[in-house]
Each structure stands twice: as C-alpha cells, then as structure tokens.
Amino acid sequence: MSNAVYLDYAATTPVDPAVVDAMVCHLGPEGTFANPASRSHLYGWLAEEAVESARRQVADLLNADPREVVWTSGATEANNLALKGVLDACGGGHVITGATEHKAVLDACGWLETKGHAVTYLKPQSNGQISPESVAAALRDDTVLVSVMHANNETGVINDIAVIGGVCRERGVLFHTDAAQSVGKLPLDVKNLPVDLVSVCAHKVYGPKGIGALYVRRSPDVKVAAQIHGGGHERGMRSGTLATHQIVGMGEAFALAGSLKDEEGPRICALRDRLWRGIAALGGVSVNGEGAARLPGHLNVAFEGVDGEMLLTAMNGVAVSSGSACTSASLEPSYVLKAMGVTDALAHGSIRFSVGRFTSPEDIERAISSVVDAVNRLRTVSA
Ligand SMILES: *Cc1c(COP(=O)(O)O)cnc(C)c1O
What we know:
Blueprint: E1 5-6, H1 17-24, H2 42-62, E2 69-72, H3 75-90, E3 94-98, H4 103-114, E4 119-122, H5 132-138, E5 143-147, H6 161-170, E6 174-178, E7 197-201, E8 212-216, H7 244-280, E9 285-287, E10 298-303, H8 308-314, E11 318-319, H9 335-339, H10 344-348, E12 350-354, H11 361-382
Parallel strand pairs: 1-11, 3-4, 3-5, 5-6, 6-7
Antiparallel strand pairs: 2-8, 7-8, 9-10, 10-12
Helix pairs in contact: 1-7, 2-7, 3-4, 5-6, 7-11
Bound molecules: pyridoxal-5'-phosphate.
Pyridoxal-5'-phosphate binds at residues 74-76, 102, 104, 149, 153, 178, 180-181, 201, 203-204, 212.
C-alpha cells in the first residue's frame, strides 16, 4: 500500500483490529451468521442476542435506552430518516438547518422543499458556529424540526447543541443533530441534552462502513415514519434484515470509544497541535474555524498563495482532503468555508488534515516536512 501518512480520519477511519476480530465471529458457518429475525432456532436467537448486545453498547455511549436506537446503513440514512420521517409523521411544516451541514442533511432538506415544505438555511458565524440566537430568530409558528450538526466534518467546529436544543424545546420544536463526527470524541449524553434525534455511524470511530443508527427519543415519544418498507423491523421504523457483523462491529467500536475517551482525545489533540505549530512556521497560513471549539483531531488550514489541488498533488507524502471527501470531486471551493465568509482564493487554498487513533508522533513530523516542502516549492514557483 501507499506509504503516505494517513491524515484523513474525518473521511473515514480504519477498522480497529479488536473490532475486526469481533466482526469475523459473525460471518462463517461456525459463527453467529443466522438471521437475527429467525425466531424458530438457536442460530437465530444467538444472532439476535449479538444484535441486542451491540444495541446496548451503542445506547451506553449516548446514555440512551437501547429501545431508542434504530439501525440504519449509516449517518446518511439516519439523517434522511430523521428529516423525512419526522416531516412525514407530523404532516409537514417548516424546517431550520445550517448552511454548513453535511450534504446528507442539505440534500434531504432540498428534497423536502420539492415536496412543498419550507426550509430555512442559517448562515454560520465567521468561526463556523451556528448561533443559538439565529436559531431562535428563525423559529416560526409552523416550525416542526431544527437540524443542526454537533461538529462539522470539514472544520471540526462544534456547535452548542445544548443551548440550541434548549431554544427548540422551549418552543415545542423537535431537535435533530448529526453527530457522525463527534460521537465517541465528545460527550453526548441524551438523558441530559435537549435532543430528540441523533444520527451516528460506525466508520468515523474505527468501526465498519455501511452501518449507523438513529437515536429516537421515547419520552416524550418522537414519531418517525418509515422511509424503507418491508417487514417492519426496528419497531416499524426501518425494515431490512439486520447486518449482524456490521452491527456487532459498530457496538464494539462504540464500546472501545467509550473506554478510550479520557486518554484518546488529549493525545490526538496534542498531535494535531504539534502539526499546526509545524505548519504555522511557514507563515501565511490560518486555521478555518479559529476561535471556535473544535474536535481534537481536525485541522483545516488555509494556505495563502497556494492552490489546494496543486498542494494535494505536491504533498505526495500525506493523504488528506481538500474540503470534505464527499465534495472534493467537484472543483467548486468548499460550501462550508464559503458560508463562513472565507474568500474563494483562500477556500481554494484550504486543506483538511485529520489526526486519529493510529497516528504516531513520527507521522506528524513526516507530514510537517512534506507540507512545508510542498508549500515552499509552490510559493517559489508562483512568486
Ligand atoms: C460521514 C458523515 C456523514 C455520512 O455518514 P455515512 O455513514 O458515511 O453515510 C454524515 N454527516 C457527517 C457530519 C459526516 O461526517
């Protein structure tokens, strides 16, 4: 494989070896391979037990009741289920979200608009945060749902979901948060937070791709209409045979994140800060989202006088993204950075570095020299 330093943990993480071991036990003929919905034999009961044990692991990390966890194929589906499912169940209304949300929320909102629902897209402050005041000001009598992400995938900027959720609750409006980036990295205690729906997935926290969950509050009962029909699994909210191995992997990954939470964040944050000091020595660089609370592993840097795409090519020793992986196929600068008021030139010259569990201090030193060399070369050429 490539020997480039992997600093793209915000796009996805490798699966932790302990998680791989747990998953493998649920695949082969000697394993717990059966359909968890099979009620007539021990094979099925064992698979169901594995699924329910994983549901408890996921619920524990959120301090939720296991009955509040609905399995999905990932955070994209969880976001779709939350937004479309709530609007369907309540008969429609006005929705408020942020301009910096993941495409899974923005595109679902766009679809809701085509069905006649009104959506307000809030502009973030220049540090990337959605202010609770802007949410309060946008609330209307017909507002039914507010969706504001916990932490942004491009910048790592953290929104104050406790205050935003409080504003919603006071007005009797449901509050959804996309926590795909923050879960396992920031405390997220649904018993003590005014959130009604939370989207999470496994593959940003050292679990497998293709599995996620939607937390749906039971008390007071939040109504979500199914978007995938066929068999009535997951208490009617999401049909389809449960992917035992994926679910077990997600449970194990969430349990691991819970047990590492005090140790891992500070270690990753120290590596990220070392990376920034190394890059900052170049001059003409700034952090997108500066001044806001940010996730420990994220570092989104704007390089003056450098094109991000050229920089990506020039830094062949580092695997990173320009903007987010999901939109880097397009040559448009990041809509997240543009919404924050970053100029086109700086948005084009921005790179997201993200540090994670398997990053070593040596990786960071190698990355710094690769970035510094590449930027100096590009700046010399263009000067
Ligand atoms: C990765 C991500 C998603 C999409 O999750 P999938 O499980 O890949 O569908 C949604 N929202 C945010 C904030 C993300 O970072």
